[in-house]
Amino acid sequence: RPMLKRNNEKGARPTERGNVLNYIDRYSHAYMMAHQRTAPITLENTQEVYYILSGTATITGGGKTYNLYPGACALVPAGLEFVIDNATEEILEMYLVSEKVTAGFTPNKEILVRDEKTVTVRHKSHWTYESHVLFGRADGLSQLQNVAMVEIPPNSFSQPHSHDEKVEEVWSTIDTGMEFMLGKHVRKIEP
């Protein structure tokens, strides 16, 4: 079940709870039970990014099989049949980002998997953030500029900032809670 979904009423107040996204189709915290295998899936006009939080599994598409484990991130392109197989005793827990592909976009021909631990730090930003860009437009994203893991050191405070109206950021925590300022209010995000 998506935590956040696209608001189809551009610029208008959402008519359903969670319909606040403008560019991402949906953002979910998803689970796959132990000893489960998906039916073969082909994404039409959509591609998905899976970031693994816990558990292990495999993802197979285009005749290739890749391992999924905590810190692995998979970009599944539109038009490619794939299967996820959790043959373990553990629940597979992940974040799932789905984006619609734009007209004229040519998706990748195969699944792309990256390990967060082996991606080089792209840059430091907003005083303390360390950004690990997992995927960008050159890697096959259609509407999203990038998918990045951002490390914020404990007991730090980063520069307040905003973006123009064509930028959409979704923040989640992986293993610890976080506090941030939204306007004049301090908010908490729990894993």
Which secondary structure elements does this structure contain, and how are they paired or packed?
Layout: E1 2-6, E2 19-21, E3 26-32, E4 36-37, E5 41-42, E6 46-54, E7 57-61, E8 64-68, E9 72-76, E10 81-86, E11 92-100, E12 112-115, E13 123-125, E14 129-136, E15 146-151, E16 178-182, E17 185-189
Parallel strand pairs: 1-2
Antiparallel strand pairs: 1-3, 3-11, 4-10, 5-10, 6-9, 6-11, 7-8, 7-10, 9-12, 13-14, 14-15, 16-17
Between the first and last Cα atoms, what is the distance in angstroms? 17 Å
Tell me the β content: over 45%
Largest sheet geometry: 7 strands, mixed
SSE ordering: EEEEEEEEEEEEEEEEE
Which strand order does the major sheet show? 2-1-3-11-6-9-12
Query: Taking all residues together, what is the mean pLDDT?
Result: 86
Number of helices: 0
Principal-axis shape equals globular
Rg calc: 17 Å
Helix content: under 10%
- Category by helix and strand content: mainly beta
Please mark out the parts with pLDDT under 50 across 5 or more consecutive residues, or reply none: none
How many β-strand stretches? Answer: 17
List keywords for this structure.
single chain, 191 residues, mainly beta, 7-stranded mixed β-sheet, 0% helix
Describe the structure.
- The chain is mainly beta.
- The protein is 0% helix and 47% strand.
- The protein has strands at 2-6, 19-21, 26-32, 36-37, 41-42, 46-54, 57-61, 64-68, 72-76, 81-86, 92-100, 112-115, 123-125, 129-136, 146-151, 178-182, 185-189.
- The protein is globular and about 50 Å long.
